[in-house]
Amino acid sequence: MKVFKNEEGEVRSGWKILILFLVEYILLFIMANIIGSLVVISRSIRENIYIILMFSQEIVLILTPILSWKVLFKKDLSLIGLKALNKKEVKNLILGLVMGIAAITLAFILIIISKSGVLVNSLLEPRFSLSLVVYFILFIFVGFAEELLSRGYIIGAMEVSNNNKWFAVMVSAVIFSLMHYGNNGFSLIPFLNIFLVGILFGFMYVKTKSIWLSTGFHITWNFFQGCIYGMPVSGITTPKLYEMTFVGNSILNGGTFGPEGGLIVTMVIILMLVSLIFLIKNKKIQ
User: Fold this and answer.
1) What's phi and psi for 188, nearest 5 deg?
2) Phi, psi of 141, rounded to the nearest 5 degrees
3) Residue 49: what are its φ and ψ, rounded to 5°?
4) What φ, ψ does residue 219 adopt, rounded to 5°?
5) What is the number of alpha carbons within 13 Å of residue 34 lying toward its C-beta?
6) Is the pTM of this model over 0.85?
7) Which of 218, 226, 269, 273 has minimal Cβ neighbours within 10 Å of its Cβ?
């Protein structure tokens, strides 16, 4: 039994994480087959298959950690950072949203200044569409799902099993980065950058004991990166208000993977880590 439980009788964190991923894989497989069968009989599903699959996937990724933690392991959801949105957590969420916008806007400006990217349409010619609203909602789901899984569940499970919190942050960052392995343009620099983002988000989680600060950052970082500034989001293209074309050496702009695959974002992430430490030391984040 010691293989499965520690000295306190707690299921080991490795098993909790493995069980979660196995359950998610099975549910995602079933979901994909159900939607695939509906495509044959429904034209509307066929025409919107990608967005339906994405929303369905995120719903599975949200429900599985919650049900696993609450029903299977019978633990309080606050232990995986899922806390009520009280005044403190709303403040953290809003701060995260602002930080995400600031960080990706800085990356966007640096890409323009370095001449490794150019805008296709003028700032005076935005391309509004209903798809932008749909993708904003989607990125809310994505940000919440990935933070609940990568920060809340993984770090929470390891902390409950008495693992060192900074070791837990490192493990969650590696898993978070590997989750992007199959994305278009994934290579060494994208792996390292997403790992650094994982460290940044993990630091936020450990210091606030909540997923809301990192969730806010994650949402606006993705949405503004893809839908406002027109750059690929981890190798994925989206509808866009403005469109950017990358030029020159992809080591700066990230090429097909998007800015998260370039050294400009490496610098931005490091700057955000320094800013986060400053905010925490000055008690702006609690």
Assistant:
1) -65, -50
2) -60, -45
3) -60, -40
4) -60, -55
5) 10
6) yes
7) 273
Q: If we measure between CA atoms, which residue out of 68, 110, 82 comes closest to residue 265? A: 110
Tokens of 248: 């020159």
Written as six digits, the tokens of 65 are: 């950690």
Taking a C-beta distance cutoff of 8 angstroms, is the pair 126, 242 a contact? Answer: yes
Q: Where is pLDDT greater, at 90 or 286?
A: 90
Sign, CA dihedral 58-62-65-68, equals: negative
pLDDT at 269 (0 to 100): 98
Instruction: Enter the tokens of residue 34.
Output: 């159900």
% of the chain at pLDDT higher than 70: 99
CA quadruple 74, 199, 259, 211: dihedral sign: positive
Q: Are 85 and 212 in contact (CB under 8 A)?
A: yes
Cα(202)–Cα(175) distance, integer angstroms: 12
Q: CA–CA separation, 154 vs 13, rounded Å?
A: 8
CA distances from 45 to 34, 52, 56, 112, 143 (A): 12, 7, 12, 38, 24
pLDDT in tens, 126-172: 999 999 999 999 999 999 999 999 999 999 999 888 778 999 999 99
Q: Rounded to a whole number, what is the distance in angstroms from the first to the last CA of the chain?
A: 39
How far is residue 176's CA from residue 171's CA, in Å, rounded to a whole number?
Answer: 9
- Letter for the amino acid at 242? Y
d(CA 72, CA 15): 12
CA torsion sign for 163, 218, 131, 248 is negative
H/E stretch holding 6: none
Residue whose structure tokens are 């610098």:
267
At residue 285, the pLDDT reads 82
